[in-house]
Design brief:
With about 130 residues, this protein is an all-alpha fold. The protein contains six helices and no strands.
Length: about 130
């Protein structure tokens, strides 16, 4: 049990890579958020082959889902704690939904939407 739990420790970190890089790319380049998500998703897919070999498919999905979460919240939030809480919550949703909904279309976007929405409710930042 502990060994399996330890394998999930990098998940929030990998998820936050997607959030931070998408937000940073959008704010620094002023590109459309959709273009930033595409760049981060493609880059994350390529870099996952090189960096995260032991859990490559999960890393690709987490980076892309993190980019989607940034897409939903980049105009709302610039708090570091918000992104960290979203990363932890989304990682827990990702881990728990993998066995329940394998190969379900839209799962990553749903995880991004739910985790961002719950954090917005928690911080009271819905417009």
């Amino acid at each position: 049990m502990l060994k399996k739990l330890i394998t999930y420790i990098p998940y929030p970190i990998i998820y936050s890579i997607g959030i931070f890089t998408t937000t940073l790319l959008h704010t620094q380049t002023q590109w459309s958020i959709v273009v930033c998500v595409a760049v981060v998703g493609l880059s994350g897919s390529i870099l996952s082959h090189l960096i995260f070999r032991s859990f490559q498919k999960s890393a690709e999905a987490l980076i892309f889902s993190g980019a989607l979460a940034a897409m939903a919240s980049v105009s709302q939030i610039n708090l570091l704690i918000f992104f960290l809480l979203t990363s932890i919550l989304a990682s827990l949703l990702f881990i728990s939904s993998t066995k329940v909904f394998p190969h379900l279309g839209g799962r990553l976007g749903t995880i991004a939407f739910v985790s961002t929405g719950l954090c917005l409710l928690f911080f009271g930042l819905f417009p």
